[in-house]
Write a structure and sequence with these properties.
By secondary structure, this protein is mostly beta strands. The chain is built from no helices and six strands.
Length: about 110
């Protein structure tokens, strides 16, 4: 697993805790996280996410703003914690000074290239 990583509680839904997430950008940030939790490698995605819904035989897709792209090893805070039910943190919260390097899907790469 490579940094940055998403930290998610194992509680899947229905509780306040299930929406308490964190992006840990460096190994030293893991100590502040409570376990048990799920770690997922953060994949840059051009600060957009597509939600797809299917109900009653109909499919709907909606593009929403998401977290900023984060380059591996970039300076800034080690951890950004947030509630996924509230406005998401942006470049200011991550203390990003410049955009990350171009990468997959026209976004940026956490690998820096």
């Amino acid at each position: 697993l490579r940094f940055p990583v998403m930290c998610k509680p194992l509680v899947a839904c229905g509780t306040v805790e299930s929406h308490q997430l964190a992006v840990v950008r460096r190994e030293d940030g893991l100590a502040s996280q409570r376990s048990p939790l799920l770690l997922q490698e953060f994949v840059c995605h051009s600060a957009s996410i597509v939600k797809v819904y299917y109900a009653g035989g109909q499919t709907r897709a909606q593009t929403r703003p998401s977290l900023p792209d984060l380059a591996r090893g970039e300076a800034g805070v080690a951890v950004v914690e947030f509630d996924s039910q509230r406005p998401l943190p942006g470049r200011v919260e991550f203390q990003l000074e410049q955009p990350a390097q171009p990468g997959l899907f026209g976004g940026t790469s956490a690998q820096g290239g």
